[in-house]
Amino acid sequence: MTWRGADFFPHDLKFPFSKWMPFCVIGSLVLNALSLGLAVTRGINFSIDFKGGSLIEIHNKTGVADVAALRAKLGALGVGTPQIQAFDDGSNVLIRLEQQPGGDTAQNAAIDKVKGALGDTVEYRRADSVGPTVSGEITQTAFYAVAASLVAISAYVWFRFEWQFALGASLALVHDVLMTVGLFALTQLEFDNNCIAALLTIVGYSINDTVVVSDRIRENLRKYKKMLLPELIDMSINTTLSRTVLTAGTVILVLTAFVLLGGSVTRSFIIAMLFGIFTGTYSSIFIASPVLEWLGVKRDWSGAAAATTAGNKAGTSTKSA
Amino acid sequence: MLHFERWKIWSIVAVCLFGLLAGLPNVLGSNFLNDRWPSFLPHSKISLGLDLRGGSYLVLQANIEKLKQNWFDSLINDSRKALREAKIPYTGLGKNADGVRFRVSKPEDAAKGLEVANKLRRPISMLLGGTGAADLDIKTEDSGNLILIAPTPEALSQRIRGAMDAAMEVVRRRIDALGTTEPSIARQGTDRMVVQVPGFDDPTKLIDIIGKTAALSFHAVDESMSPDAATSNGVPPGSRIYPTEKQELERNPGLPKDYLLKLVPEVEGNELIGAQAEFDQNGRPAVGFRFNTNGAIKFGNYTSANVGHPFAIVLDDKVITAPNIISAIRGGSGIITGNFSTEEATNLAIQLRSGALPTDLSVINQRTVGPSLGADSILAGTRSALVGAAAVAAFMMYAYGLFGLFSVIALAINIMLLFGCMSLLGQTLTLPGIAGIALTMGMAVDSNVLIYERIREELRGGKSAIAAIEQGFQRALATVIDSHITTLVAGLIMFALGEGPIRGFAVSLSIGIVISVFTAYTVTRLFVAMWVARQRAVTRNIVVPV
Q1: Interface test with B, best of A118, A258, A277, A284 (most B CBs within 10 A)
Q2: Cβ atoms within 10 A of the Cβ of B170, count?
Q3: Min CA distance, B516 vs chain A (Å)?
Q4: Hey, what domains does chain B have and what are their CATH numbers?
Q5: A267 touches chain B (CB under 8 A)
Q6: Is the pLDDT of residue B213 over 60?
Q7: Whole-complex ipTM
């Protein structure tokens, strides 16, 4: 008796992805524009890693903290207006001080003042201070990291597939990054150094997904040389759908465990990754593939390209409206 | 695809076993590890990052500009002295952004002025990897009347490196005095250092301690009695017992463990203006040092009156070396010879400089994690990872039956190998690193999902069990590799550009992904192959579990 698994995912799905693509592409463009707009107008809640300043997390030994009293006490210290936020059960408090004038060393002085004012009445869970020099570097490094990974990955996809795939993949990645930025702008979740790692992971996961779909498309291009491109792409996506959903599902399982049990330090980082799984999966289907359809791609990978490309273009009925 | 030669099977087993052994030091107690764990097996453990252990993390920036200015100031002093001795009238002796300049008042002195400047040059120490070239660039302008003295870039960077070495030595010494466990002090770039002190969450105190300048002094040795006699009978007035520095004792076990020295130093540390590792006239490593004018006079007087006797160099109340005076040293420059290795000479020079070289260090970044948050983070991270792992395992077994079980076992081996690798490489585990491990689990499973879904497809297409399984593994391989490489690219970039926690995440993700190609693909394939072989022997009609 073999222990059999449950093959619960329906087969022979024939979702007409190509029909939905124009709407989705337009929808994505709108959402991306919105994300950018939000990021510019409402701004992103950058942590001290990027803004500079200080962050102190305290645990009030006597129970729920009196935030108003804290605010008054710390406001009088001459370190600017502290931003105070209680979380968890109310006894843990986050105190944020903006960047103090006076360069790098002034940040420590601010923390010392706060510690002096609060003394032993609280337990100091963590204290971070970042001066302007380092925060500037973190910002720059973050930007380079994201840009470098986009370039490197696109290059690899170009090397393994055709340029149309690489273009589609790059646009999909850009879409994912923009959407994640929009998420942070919308929810005002704190964007810290870890969130850059989350962004890069999202890039990694999204390209993973895109490569799987592209791989199947490439295989089918060779196998079904006469099939119209939209139909072929639809078939490729439908047949890989079970894998896509199942894998996304397992990763979501793991990340959800972290969201629920992982504590506050990594929360925004994990939430970003969770969101990224969804956009990553979405972008492989509704961004990378439409680009492929629109650009057309050769069927016969031994070189007789010209004749078939015309056939593809005629078959693409889903050029954007 | 389903046939594994004997040797391949054994190699796979060997790799897994090695991973297990590499990871074991993390769970064995230190007593067992030190005494009974064979020495040919790996010993290194994973270290916990500060965000899990609690502690302080500081980034200190050295004031390079001030270093340059100090050098220029001493060049100005030396120039002034030399010009006066050579009786050359001069004007405009001063410094600008690049160096020192002066102008000879009488054009006929131009050549002599140039000679004076040339004499100020010193070779860049070859022991620190320098080329032995001169450290100053001397140029003239205005038909030789204006003399410009500027440090060469090589000399400047070597001086910065020397200052950083000295500063790091001071910091290390200070922190050791706190008695904390395993502090780490590492250079970052050319002019910064990163100090991590686990378990110590008072950064203000840490900064205070680091900021104090080291106290260096030169003492006469009191030879009226041995240090042991002084300890039992009482120290003679005007003298004091100084213990020998621990590292020095480790380097030279033959040294006495303490010395009896005169209390008042003959020369103060701040009168030492330089020390560097050199070669003596026999070509052996030695330490050359220089005093300023006052120090030179005092030192000259002392050494000429005490030839053949030892004198001691004391740093932070500990004796770092006690050489014998071979001859009077009047010029202010001396050389300490002994059985120094190159490394020892360099270290001694650093220690001498760490008393003499004031390098301003400012804290540009600090992070402190209190012990309770550290413990909470470990708990939360471990709990999430375990729950996540359990959920994934349950799902895989539900969806893929027996093959799902195979993939779960492969996943367990994956994690074990991951820990093994991280131990061997001495990597640090951070909280994002735990998340990286969890993510690796999700993505390792992806490979299996790819393979199994492909097998299902082939079965639906009408292939026989064995053919379907073979095709599944075959077709999936290219996709597995492609998708892993792309994620790896992201991981490597994070590793290259990130620091601290991000690097921890990148490490566990990257290593995990590389290992997962092996475990999720090859190890699973092995299990399936073994199962198929067993099934073939038993029945003609194999039922594939997926």
Answers
A1: A258
A2: 24
A3: 14
A4: 6-53+371-538 (1.20.1640.10), 65-151 (3.30.70), 213-359 (3.30.1360.200)
A5: no
A6: no
A7: 0.81
On whether residue A197 sits in a domain, the answer given is: yes
Angle at B12 between CA B9 and CA B17, to 5 degrees: 125
**Residue B354 in contact with partner chain A when CB distance is under 8 A:** no
pLDDT band for position A201 (cuts 50, 70, 90): confident
Q: Is B477 exposed, middle or buried (0-12, 13-18, 19+ CB in 10 A)?
A: middle
Which residues from chain B sit within 8 angstroms of residue A53, using beta carbons? Answer: none
**pLDDT, chain B, mean:** 83
Could you say which residues from 309 to 328 on chain B have a Cβ atom under 8 Å away from some Cβ of chain A? none
Q: Are residues A66 and A192 in the same domain?
A: no
Of B396, B398, B439, nearest to A201 by CB-CB distance is B439
Q: How many CA atoms lie within 13 A of A306 on its CB side?
A: 0
Are residues A156 and B362, on separate chains, in Cβ contact within 8 Å?
Answer: no
Instruction: Tell me the C-alpha distance between A247 and A250, whole Å.
Output: 5
**Is the pLDDT reported for residue B110 higher than 90?**
no
Burial A101-125 (b: 16+ CB within 10 A, else e): eeebebbbebbebbbeebeeebbbb
Residue that terminates a domain, selected from A130, A149, A165? A130
Query: Both A305 and A269 in a single domain?
Result: yes
Residue B477 distance to chain A (closest CA, Å):
11
Residue A301 pLDDT greater than 70, yes or no: no
Question: Cβ separation of B384 and A2 shorter than 8 Å?
Answer: no
**Structural domain that includes position A85:** 53-130
Is A240 found in the same domain as A191? yes
- A27 and A163: one domain? yes
* One-letter amino acid of A258: F
Query: Do A183 and A280 belong together in one domain?
Result: yes
Residue B238 φ then ψ, to 5°: 85, 0
A195 touches chain B (CB under 8 A): no
Contact A215 B478 (CB under 8 A): yes
| Cross-chain residue pair B457–A239, CB shorter than 8 Å | yes
Query: Do A242 and A9 contact (CB within 8 A), yes or no?
Result: yes
| Nearest-neighbour CA in chain A from B520: distance (Å) | 14
Contact B373 A57 (CB under 8 A): yes
Share of chain A above pLDDT 90, in %: 18
- DSSP three-state, residue B543: coil
Q: Looking at residue B519, what DSSP letter applies?
A: I
Same-domain pairing of A145 and A67: no
Cα–Cα distance measured from residue B165 to residue B348, given in angstroms and rounded to the nearest whole number: 11
Residue with the larger pLDDT of the pair A183 and B148: A183
Residue A87 makes CB contacts below 8 A (sequence gap 6+) with: A93, A94, A264
Q: Of B68-77, B315-324, B326-335, B510-519, which one has max mean pLDDT?
A: B510-519
Contact A252, A276 (CB under 8 A): no
